[in-house]
Amino acid sequence: VNARLVSGIAAVLTGLAVVYIVGVLLGMPDPDWAYLPRGVIHLGELAAVVALWLSGATGPGLIGRLGLGLALIGELMFAVAEVITLSAPGTSETLFAIAPNLVGLGLILAGIAVIRTGTWTGWRRFVTLALGVYVFAVLTPVIIAAGGPPALPAVAGLLVWQVLWVLI
Known about the structure:
With 168 residues, this protein is mainly alpha-helical. The chain is built from six helices and no strands.
């Protein structure tokens, strides 16, 4: 599998997620069945993690592999949590409580590995770490304080999250 192909898929899906979130912020209705496209959004994020792995930017070390593994598991949990939102809300809430922590920690570790390898230069070198830190420093506190989506601050926080995914 080609890293460019997977990163292209990730860019398209996370880019569509940005458009979707902007639409929600502008008042687009978010129907009950919207859990399906939101599940696809998380598959786009998962594709970004896979593309990061395929690119070799994290190097062969344990920190990078562990980080990518945690992020992969977290993104799979996000996708499942979205899809079962209506059918199993309790399980969905539990997955939503765990997944961001796995993704955030995983991206911090992978981001450290990306910086250490020096494979990427310039701003790209720091995006993975920034995305991982964003989970804990901004996104989670904003979502908790706002009471989660559809509250405007929570949705705005998710918009920045998606933009960072596009940049990966």
